[in-house]
Write a structure and sequence with these properties.
230 residues; ECO RV Endonuclease, Chain A; 3-stranded mixed beta sheet; 3-stranded antiparallel beta sheet; 10 strands; globular
């Protein structure tokens, strides 16, 4: 339904097939066209609006979780991830999974982890990520739904347990983006002044740089090849 040329935000999709159909309707459209449909402004670049693409897709597809620690489509248990793709058809960057609770992660097992919950079922929506294109001109690609195979989960679990163990021992500052074969830890903050509570090796609290778990581009690139063989 349209109101004065601006479409109403759709309600939560009642099934995975409905969600996928909605995402497929966006395929081939420019971000400017999608934004226009829902009365959203397109930023001139993504340097100060890194969450624009994901937020726009969440709005267009009827996501419900907002910033809560849950899959974006809570009733379906499905997470939404936009996937910036370069001219060569491969991911341009790593994919954010979730923020890290630096204090509580030491008490969490893989099966109860937010990473496992977020990656149990994912709707990936490729989007052109070539920086030579204006943000509005970038087009939405063909979406696909993914769940980790037993091999994928074992590999992700291995990385998560290694990284979570380092953080849990109070050495978050010693983690670099080089650790982890498929899953990595990177800073997750709007600017360098952002801080959240962390605990050092002696159990003492300190102001730590926020961090998040990310899927490496090599991992999401593998998923693209599995769904869209060349």
């Amino acid at each position: 339904m349209d109101l004065g040329g601006v479409a109403l935000r759709p309600g939560p999709p009642e099934s995975e097939s409905v969600l996928l159909a909605r995402a497929e309707e966006l395929s081939g459209l420019s971000l400017a066209r999608v934004a226009e449909r829902y009365g959203r402004a397109v930023p001139p670049d993504l340097r100060r609006a890194k969450g624009f693409v994901g937020s726009l897709l969440e709005h267009a597809l009827g996501a419900t979780a907002s910033s809560r620690a849950a899959p974006d489509f809570e009733a379906l248990g499905i997470e939404l991830k936009s996937l910036p793709i370069g001219k060569d058809g491969t991911p341009c960057e790593s994919t954010f999974v979730c923020t890290i609770d630096l204090v509580r992660i030491a008490d969490v097992e893989w099966q109860a982890s937010l990473v496992k919950r977020k990656l149990s079922r994912v709707l990936f929506v490729p989007v052109e990520g070539d920086r030579a294109l204006s943000v509005g001109a970038r087009r939405v690609g063909t979406p696909f739904v993914w769940s980790p195979s037993a091999e994928d989960e074992a590999a992700l679990r291995f990385d998560w347990e290694e990284l979570a163990g380092i953080i849990g021992r109070g050495d978050a500052e010693g983690i670099t983006g080089h650790l982890g074969r498929h899953l990595q830890v990177r800073p997750k903050a709007k600017d360098a002044s952002a801080r959240r509570r962390g605990v050092d090796a002696d159990g003492m609290p300190y102001a730590a740089l926020p961090r998040g778990f990310y899927l490496r581009a090599s991992f999401t690139g593998k998923l693209l090849l599995e769904h869209f063989p060349r």
